[in-house]
Amino acid sequence: MPKIKTSKEEVLQKVIPILRTRGVQNSSMSELSKACGIQKSHFYYYFSNKEELIKEVLALVHSYFNYNFFKIIQSDTLDIQEKITKIKGLMNKIFKVSEGGCIMANTALETIHLDPIYKKEIRLFFHDFISGLQYLLEINHEPDNALMLAEQIVQDIEGGILLMQVYDDSKYLNNAIIRMEKLILNK
Prior knowledge:
Elements: H1 8-22, H2 29-36, H3 40-46, H4 50-73, H5 80-97, H6 103-111, H7 119-137, H8 143-167, H9 171-185
Helix pairs in contact: 1-2, 1-4, 4-5, 4-7, 5-9, 6-7, 7-8, 8-9
């Protein structure tokens, strides 16, 4: 029998891996509530519908990424090489250790052509990702070039995540991260 007491945060944490691997369209509220160990009716206590749940998941992922990413980037105690090392660790934790790749890209690819309901949150995530990289790139590059390179890095990393999933080989993401490091350090 499903347990009854669980927090909204626990529910969100439990549905993220399912949505990352199965996607929005292939994850029913029944399946998600079962994975959380709660009754479907209790699931609706936290979320009035699936769209609200997905928006909150995306907001939570975005918040987690921003907190950790910008904590590294804005650190006054880390030099540029230490920042890159920590960013590489964060990307490995988020994109390699977690099965299914990038939940933002997955959700965008799956839903944007059908219904752009999640487009705003996904755009904000990628905007922040690009902005953070641009900030680091401006150490060794002109602002306009830094923006272009930041966009290129995010495209490269997301492509690396996709190919890593397609070929079950992390070399694609590893190579994208190596290219990111070279661009930031201007090597």
